[in-house]
Amino acid sequence: MTLPVARTRDEAHxxxxxxxxxxxxxxxxxxxxxxxxxxxxxxxRYSGRCAGCGARRQYLFALPEHEVTAPGFPVxxxxxxxxxxxxxxxxxVADLTAGNVPTGDDAAARQALDIATAAMEEVVKFVPxxxxxxxxxxxxxxxxxxxxxxxxxxxxLDRLLVVRDTYRRIAGRYRPGAGR
Length: 180
Hints:
By secondary structure, this protein is an alpha+beta fold. It has helices spanning 9-18, 87-98, 106-124, 142-150, 157-172; strands at 32-37, 42-49, 56-62.
């Protein structure tokens, strides 16, 4: 059995948020994680009880080939594209997060825009070198294909970069001392 790779804790937890409890639809779970042996190789097991219905939830992920470390939050992954979320799901995360930036709390606004920026960067990782758009193979989930189907042009590299850079620029306005 080939396990999907969770490149970082942030990516795993985002995956959990996008995949609620099958019994009740709640995403409210306190997750515990542990390194385990998964048929001869190391893996990380996340488990917990759904706060909505008490169902046991568990996921098993392979570890990345190279540890991903970076300062700050969020850290979704290294240079390679995600195996957990497809390009459409990452764009959905960016849309939802940027569309719900809190007002009146600069730190929370900055964090939301940092997440949206990082999610856009994850979409860009699916564009192969020398290509100008995210390929069809980067959409494997129903949700991701639906996002792509609404406006395939949003997965053009130039458009992705403009949106990413715009989110980054707006997030910068919320940094201490930036003066808006």
